[in-house]
Specification:
alpha/beta, Rossmann fold, 286 residues, 21% strand
Length: 286
C-alpha cells in the first residue's frame, strides 16, 4: 500500500489562545514495500505525524491517501484503515493484558469476528514472524516473558491483523544492545517475509542508516530534509543544526578525513562499510 501525505498541518486547540502547532505543511510519500525512517529531535513532531497516518489523529488541514482511500475525508471506515496500517507504540509491552501470549495476539482478529481456525493460523504466523515458537510460548502468561519477548509478543498482536503498512515508534527503546539489534533484524525480516511497508521512528542513526530506503527529517513540526540515507547523512552540517548526528560508520570516515585520510564517504553508513573502506584505503596507501 502506498501512502501519500499532502501538505498536512496539525494543531492542538486550533483557534484558541493556547493553540499549539505541532505539524506544519508536511508532504511526502511512502511507496509500497519500502522502509522509511523518521528522525528528529525530541519534540519535532515525529509521534504526532505517525498517529495521523492511521487516523488516531486527524490533520487540521491537508490530505492523507492510503492506497486510493482519503483517510482525512471522514468517509472511510477507520477500523478498516487501522487493520491495513498497524501502529506499534513505544513500549508496546505495557499494552499486554490477556492471560496467555496466544490470547493476547489473537485479541484483534477475534474482535473482527474471524473463524477460530483463521484466528489460530494468524496467531501462529505472527508468532513465527517475531521469533516466538508457538509450542513454547502460546500458553504462557505474557507477564512471565523477558522484556524483549514481551515486545515481540506485542508486535505479533499487530501483525496478526496482517497490516500492509507497519509503523514502529522507537521499537527498540530501552532494550540492551543485543535485544536492540535482534528487534531491528526482526523488523527487516517482517518486511521481507510479508512485503509490508515499514515506517520507523527512531533516535538511532545507525538503525536508520542500516535499514532504511528513505529518511524524513523533522524539525519543529516541519519536514526539513528527505532522501536516501546517503543523501540525508551527506548533509552533516544541516543535521547538526537540527540536533542530529551521523551513523557511526559515516562519522568514523569523517574523523579519518579530518586526520588526512582520503577516503570517500559516499555509500558508507554502517561500521562494516567503514571498516571495508578503511582497509581498502590502507592497502592502496601501502
Amino acid at each position: 500500500m502506498r501512502i501519500e501525505v499532502r501538505n498536512i498541518s496539525f494543531s492542538y486547540n486550533p483557534g484558541q489562545p493556547d493553540e499549539a502547532k505541532i505539524l506544519d505543511g508536511i508532504s511526502f510519500a511512502v511507496e509500497s514495500g519500502t522502509f522509511t525512517g523518521i528522525i528528529g529531535h525530541t519534540g519535532s513532531g515525529k509521534t504526532t505525524l505517525v498517529q495521523q497516518l492511521n487516523g488516531l489523529l486527524k490533520p487540521s488541514s491537508g490530505t492523507i491517501l492510503a492506497g486510493d482511500a482519503d483517510i482525512t475525508s471522514g468517509k472511510v471506515p477507520m477500523a478498516d484503515i487501522r487493520r491495513k496500517i498497524g501502529l506499534v507504540f513505544q513500549y508496546p509491552e505495557y499494552q499486554l493484558f490477556e492471560e496467555t501470549v496466544a490470547e493476547d495476539i489473537a485479541f484483534g482478529p477475534r474482535n473482527t469476528g474471524m473463524p477460530e481456525e483463521e484466528i489460530e493460523a494468524r496467531t501462529r504466523e505472527a508468532m513465527k514472524l517475531v521469533g516466538l515458537e508457538y509450542e513454547q510460548f502460546a500458553g504462557r502468561s505474557p507477564f512471565e516473558l523477558s522484556g524483549g519477548q514481551k515486545r515481540r509478543a506485542a508486535i505479533a498482536g499487530v501483525l496478526a491483523m496482517k497490516p500492509e503498512v507497519l509503523i514502529m515508534d522507537e521499537p527498540a527503546a530501552g532494550l540492551d544492545p543485543g535485544a536492540h539489534t535482534a528487534i531491528l533484524e526482526m523488523i527487516e525480516n517482517i518486511r521481507k517475509e510479508t512485503g509490508c511497508s515499514i515506517i520507523l521512528v527512531s533516535h538511532n542513526m545507525d538503525d536508520i542508516g542500516r535499514y532504511c530506503d528513505q529518511v524524513l527529517v523533522l524539525d519543529h513540526g516541519r519536514l526539513v530534509l528527505s532522501g536516501t540515507p546517503d543523501e540525508v547523512f551527506g548533509r552533516a552540517g544541516e543535521l547538526a543544526s537540527y540536533g542530529l548526528g551521523l551513523p557511526s560508520g559515516r562519522a568514523l570516515i569523517r574523523r579519518m578525513q579530518a586526520l588526512g585520510a582520503a577516503i570517500p564517504e559516499e555509500g558508507i553508513l554502517t561500521e562494516e562499510q567503514a571498516a571495508d573502506a578503511i582497509e581498502a584505503w590502507w592497502k592502496e596507501k601501502r
